[in-house]
Q: What sequence folds into this?
């Protein structure tokens, strides 16, 4: 979209917002920011209105305020039905096009360009989890497991479990040992040109290894490699699934073996998966199919799930507030539950760090780890 089209789209949001403030009640960033209006959804729309009307100049202050977790909860509560995260992303893009890029975000973009991941770690470290597999996996094949940067670097145990799970269900699974970044952080940073180039590179690398089906444990990678790429007209014949979607399809086709585990768990809905991709019934059906397992819901679940604070590049921008959001989320864990399952590596990292910070006896697992345990019983 050109700047003119983006500005015109932004004007639709500004005109449709009734400034009622119903969206404010659920904003996790507002809660950890002393309820200062400009940290919340209505305040962000007012700031964007100021930018649109020329009352506010594109500057760092404005860029900072446009960074929230992009959890999308405000959109669920908006009386005008506005998809507010899109408005914030338009704002980020317009500021980036005006040359306003915060240092921390600029460094993240540079890291993707130079190391192919947003963590600025050597690509060999990102691929290190592969060395811990019992056998060297093929690098070409029809079914490919795409770990993504966060799972590979921050949650390698989940990558190992996901790989083992997929292998036990379909046989041969390939991995790319020099997997590029999927480009999603660039999209979130308002660098749409950079995103297009990076996601095309990622899809080319998958095509190069003969992939027909790609399964990932990261909802952000799914949105990037499939949904956003498709929306922007980037063509690919590869079928991309989040592992929950893929397991659900297997279950419906009767191809999921018997699952059994004596455990009481709770499930945290990742915002990207539940609110943005509308995948919240599927994980529950899979979990409930495990014999012996009891699922106790968290306060705030499915479309009304509370955020963990890890999305939208917010962790990079304000680590303290981001962790406070994660600590708040732990208050929603039902009493007596010892296992917290989720389906996103960023949520896992956030919640696990908060659990350790609070000294709780709570194990945080990816859904692949849970299903693998249930298969092995
Ligand atoms: S997307 Fe989430 S964090 Fe951002 S303004 Fe809306 S409710 Fe707040
Ligand atoms: S609920 Fe919707 S219409 Fe009301 S202030 Fe929030 S964004 Fe505007």
A:
């Amino acid at each position: 979209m050109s700047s003119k089209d983006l500005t015109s789209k932004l004007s639709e949001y500004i005109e449709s917002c009734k400034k009622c403030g119903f969206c404010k009640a659920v904003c996790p960033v507002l809660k950890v920011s002393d309820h200062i209006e400009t940290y919340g959804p209505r305040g962000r729309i007012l700031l964007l209105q100021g930018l649109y009307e020329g009352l506010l100049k594109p500057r760092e202050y404005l860029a900072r305020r446009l960074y929230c977790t992009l959890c999308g909860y405000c959109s669920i509560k908006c009386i005008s039905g506005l998809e507010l995260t899109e408005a914030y992303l338009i704002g980020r893009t317009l500021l980036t096009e005006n040359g306003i890029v915060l240092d921390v975000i600029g460094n993240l973009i540079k890291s993707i360009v130079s190391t192919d991941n947003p963590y600025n770690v050597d690509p060999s470290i990102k691929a290190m989890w592969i060395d811990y597999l019992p056998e060297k996996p093929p690098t070409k094949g029809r079914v490919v497991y795409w770990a993504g940067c966060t799972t590979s670097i921050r949650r390698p145990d989940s990558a190992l479990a996901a790989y083992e799970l997929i292998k036990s269900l379909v046989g041969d699974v390939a991995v790319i040992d020099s997997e590029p970044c999927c480009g999603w952080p660039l999209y979130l940073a308002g660098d749409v040109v950079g995103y297009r180039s990076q996601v095309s590179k990622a899809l080319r690398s998958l095509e190069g290894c003969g992939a027909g089906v790609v399964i990932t444990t990261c909802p952000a990678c799914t949105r990037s490699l499939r949904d956003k790429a498709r929306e922007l007209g980037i063509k690919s014949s590869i079928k991309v699934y989040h592992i929950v979607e893929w397991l659900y399809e297997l279950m419906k086709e009767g191809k999921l073996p018997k699952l059994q585990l004596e455990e009481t768990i709770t499930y945290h809905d990742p915002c990207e998966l539940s609110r943005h991709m509308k995948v919240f019934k599927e994980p529950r059906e899979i979990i409930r199919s495990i014999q012996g397992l009891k699922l106790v819901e968290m306060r705030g679940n499915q479309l009304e799930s509370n955020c963990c604070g890890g999305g939208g590049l917010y962790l990079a921008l304000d680590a303290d507030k981001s962790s406070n959001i994660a600590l708040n989320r732990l208050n929603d864990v039902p009493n007596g539950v010892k296992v917290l399952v989720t389906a996103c590596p960023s949520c896992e990292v956030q919640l696990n760090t908060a659990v350790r910070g609070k000294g709780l006896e709570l194990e945080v697992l990816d859904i692949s780890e849970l299903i693998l345990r249930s298969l092995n019983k």
Notes: The longest strand covers residues 260-267. Residues 26-29, 41, 44, 68-74, 84-85 surround iron/sulfur cluster (ligand 1) (CB under 6 Å). The beta strands are 143-146, 213-216, 239-242, 260-267, 291-295, 339-342, 363-366.
